[in-house]
Design a protein that fits this description.
The complex is a heterodimer. Helix content of chain A is about 75%, strand content about 0%. Chain A contains 13 helices and no strands. Chain A has one domain. Chain A is an all-alpha fold. Chain B is α/β, with parallel strands linked by helices. In chain B, helix 3 packs across helix 4 and helix 8 packs across helix 9. The radius of gyration of chain B is 18 Å and the shape is globular. The two termini of chain B are about 35 Å apart. Chain B has a domain of about 170 residues: 3-Layer(aba) Sandwich (Rossmann fold). Classes of the chains: A mainly alpha, B alpha/beta. Chains A and B meet through helix 1 and helix 6 of A and helix 1, helix 2 and helix 3 of B.
């Protein structure tokens, strides 16, 4: 444990002094605050003379202003924080020839990689927590509504989800930094993985869905519906491979109590639709958590799988000075 | 009095796939000795060191460093040895003191103790004046000296130096060799160092091992190697060059 703590401390010092991390953090905080304040100001106008609707505070995070909502923004650009924190974690030590020195000190070898991952997660937590706090403070001033306990809990869960999501990308970036010797290669590989998983998996999903379960043009409504449902199911399964989808579905459900399912409305069964139209009250917190739990577990699972692969590769590598 | 054996290797073998890098190496090094490990590039010197440090597992054979098996008790071994890799690197944006402090902390040396040691060591390796500069601005020779300080900060029993003089100018080489000698004489440390440069090994080593293509072709004090290798009588003139070339051709 001693080794982990010493390396963790040094990594934290490095992160706080690293210009590229400070730049990306400043950028993300800036854009996040701008989005939230735009939404806040438009809400201010809309709320004039209206009795306070439910969960108005959470709308700060979920409603799309002119461009996109805060949660969508983190879904898109959050991974960059993780990538920037991790892409040169191990190969920087390798090219600087400090790795062989480090592994010959009396510490377990996994202390190195664990400490680097933990330091990255701490940085992510600091950035995300301060961002959510800044926006909340701004929101209280702009719309003059104090969040209730329920909303605070939802925000906390959202925070945990965001940290997990970005940590997945941190793990992926560290994995690339273990596999590739050059920092430029690992940076490009992380960016390629980010673009692929965030933007192209969705496209690939619809492509695959059309190939596996094509939609039929028939007069029979039941048959057409059946085909449509199958097609959509394949698309959803594929999109679960994309962390951005998991994150998007989970956050929209936890932050919007009126949403009772992460599934699209068209695919709901008739009974589900009936119940939805009858009970228009917001979902209680516990029920929202029940819906979000599988997504959260999947996010934890992919983060740990990613870090686990990275750990294994690193432990098996032979470390030479040349 | 018989001196304690601190490094013991027996039948040590390392294969990468079909290639045998170290072939049935058997060698003992006693406490306080300076052992020069000589051989051309790619002879398996660094691989042998990695096995002694527990950074690579041997394919076959046994290794003991101060009685510990580096593959099973890597931490115990790493606590008592110091290792200077070939072309050692530092955290270039930190200064000498911060670099040394980091290594000291990894060795669980409390800060009060390490502060005193760092000052003393920087004096010894003649870097006290440059201690506040970032290591990125250091010359090769200064970095190598800082490397020695870093090895000594944990006060090891055995020191492994991998090509400690590579890339140094004559002055830097002399300083380095004097420092290595002093370590052994004044602190009774056992020193195991590798080099492909004959004259340096000749100058400071108590005993020499010659390794060629993974095989230890000869080991012993210089005079003994000369007698055996060249068939010379005692007192006859010889150079290590001759001995080395003789074994090299045989190998």
């Amino acid at each position: 444990m001693h080794g982990i703590f010493t390396i963790y401390r040094k990594e934290m010092e490095d992160h706080f002094g690293s210009i590229r991390f400070l730049l990306i953090a400043a950028l993300i905080v800036m854009v996040g605050v701008i989005i939230a304040s735009m939404v806040g100001m438009s809400m201010q106008d809309e709320l004039k003379g209206v009795a306070k609707p439910n969960f108005v505070f959470l709308l700060l995070f979920t409603s799309t202003g002119k461009l996109f909502s805060f949660t969508q923004f983190i879904g898109f650009l959050g991974p960059l924080i993780g990538i920037i924190l991790g892409f040169d974690a191990v190969n920087r030590e390798r090219t600087g020839r400090t790795l062989s020195k480090l592994v010959s000190q009396p510490i377990y070898r996994d202390a190195i990689i664990n400490a680097k991952f933990l330091a990255g997660v701490t940085m992510i937590a600091i950035v995300m927590a301060s961002l959510v706090l800044i926006i909340s403070g701004l929101g209280i001033r702009l719309i003059g509504v104090v969040p209730g306990a329920d909303e605070v809990w939802r925000l906390l869960i959202y925070l945990v989800l965001s940290i997990l999501y970005i940590s997945f990308w941190l793990g992926a970036a560290i994995l690339f930094s273990v596999v590739f010797r050059s920092t430029a290669t690992s940076a490009l590989a992380s960016l390629a993985a980010w673009i692929f998983l965030s933007f192209f998996v969705g496209l690939g999903g619809s492509f695959l869905a059309d190939a596996v379960a094509p939609m039929q043009q028939t007069a029979d409504v039941a048959q057409a519906t059946e085909a449509f449902i199958n097609n959509d199911r394949v698309q959803r399964i594929v999109s679960f491979l994309a962390p951005a989808t998991l994150y998007g579905d989970a956050t929209s459900t936890i932050l919007d109590p009126l949403r009772k399912t992460p599934r699209s409305f068209i695919l709901m069964g008739p009974l589900e639709r009936l119940s939805l139209s009858r009970f228009q009250n917001p979902l209680p917190l516990v029920q929202s958590i029940v819906i979000v739990a599988p997504f959260m577990i999947s996010l934890i699972a992919i983060t740990f799988i990613c870090f686990g692969i990275c750990y294994m590769v690193f432990m098996r590598q032979e470390i030479r000075s040349t | 009095m018989e001196k304690e054996i601190v490094i013991h290797m027996e039948g040590l073998t390392k294969r990468y796939g079909a290639q045998t890098v170290v072939d049935r190496l058997s060698l003992d090094v006693a406490e306080g000795e300076i052992f020069g490990f000589l051989g051309p590039n790619g002879a398996g010197k660094t691989t042998t060191m990695l096995m002694l440090l527990g950074l690579t597992e041997p394919t076959a054979g046994t290794v003991r460093v101060c009685g510990f098996d580096p593959a099973r008790d890597p931490l115990k071994v790493k606590e008592i040895i110091g290792y200077l890799p070939e072309n050692v690197g530092f955290y270039e944006d930190m200064d000498a003191r911060q670099n040394l402090r980091y290594i000291a902390r990894l060795n669980r040396i409390p800060d009060q103790v390490s502060t005193v040691r760092i000052d003393r060591l920087l004096d010894e390796v003649d870097l006290a004046k440059e201690a506040h500069k970032p290591v990125g601005s250091y010359s090769k020779g200064m970095k190598q000296r800082l490397g020695i300080a870093e090895v000594l900060i944990k006060e090891p029993r055995v020191v492994f130096l991998d090509e400690p003089t590579i890339g140094l100018d004559p002055d830097g080489t002399n300083k380095m060799l004097d420092m290595i000698c002093a370590l052994s004489r004044e602190r009774q440390m056992t020193i195991f160092f590798s080099s492909h440069l004959l004259d340096q090994v000749q100058r400071i080593s108590d005993r020499i091992g010659i390794m060629i293509k993974g095989k230890l072709v000869a080991a012993g004090p210089l005079a003994e190697l000369a007698q055996r290798g060249l068939g010379l009588e005692e007192g006859e003139a010889y150079t290590l060059d001759q001995i080395y070339m003789k074994y090299f051709k045989e190998g």
